[in-house]
Amino acid sequence: MSAVRVHFPGIAGFNMVFGRSQAEVPRVILAFVFQTNRPVSSLPSVVRIASARRCPLRKLAELAGFTLVELLVVIAVLAVLLAAVLPIIARARVASDRVREIASARMLAGAWQQYAQDAGGALLPGYKSGLPAFDANHEPIAAQTIGVAASRWVWRLAPYIGHDIRSIFVGDHERMLRELEVSDRSNYLYQTSVFPSFGLNSVWLGGDENFGGFNSAFLTTFGKFYASRLSEIGQPANMVVFASARGQENSPVGGVTEGVTEGYFRVRSPSFDTRTWSTAYNADDPASWGNLSARNGGDIVTSFADGHAESRAPETLDDMRMWSPNADAKVWNLTPTGG
User: Fold this and answer.
1) Which of 108, 196, 205, 258 lies at a CB distance of 3.0 to 4.6 Å from 168, suitable for a disulfide?
2) How many degrees, rounded to 5, is the angle at CA 195 between CA 190 and CA 201?
3) Other residues' Cβ atoms within 10 Å of the Cβ of residue 145
């Protein structure tokens, strides 16, 4: 045990050497002060400094009945447990969001099937101008906002989901819908038609006028390349109808511009008349993978023509037989002879 030397100011040449631990010095010095009737102000500066620099954790440990070492051990254990638990919580949240999104995709597939049944087997047109669409009050959509909003599937399929638009804005995407709900009516109707959480395989199912659908000249050249009836889908359990989507669009809320926006009304296949997808999924470029979004822990929630929905890795959807009823190979392009 090392000795401690303490110098008392005001007492010339007076030094004390203690052959004891430094922690005992203050008690011995106080005893000296009381025995010599010296004022407290004469306490050596070393005592005051030691008191001022005392570790706050030591005081906490003493109040709790622990030693400082024991308290530090507890803190270290808690830190390790927290580091282990946080990833588990994050994975649980991703799993929960995936389950909710799968349920929404399944509901949409059911609504899509019900539309076809009510229409005598005819599929919902994927994207077409001049079709009627109504809100929950049966007011025409085209009369309340830009007419193109009625061309998209959202408001034409809305009656089959009870006009529950919130059910097709899932996960973090719900925040955008809440902000749209307090915007003006015209903006709400238009933006919800553009940015649902799911995109429809409209080019190959129901027809899309932006990709040759309902165009007599295009159909003359390429033949009837898209399904317009349920009976024209040979393998409904393997035919993509809706999928998690995103767009390279200006966000309608939050002041975000020229960025990736979760949600988009259309998803596109790996090929059309030429290859349209890149060689790999790119999280920063929606168009690189047909506007599909792997937001569910790296997976894409997809619903199929038979009504079921599941979560799939992006690369498993790179198969034209899952997109076009006419495709007979994984790699397939539309040709002027119809395929």
Assistant:
1) 196
2) 110
3) 22
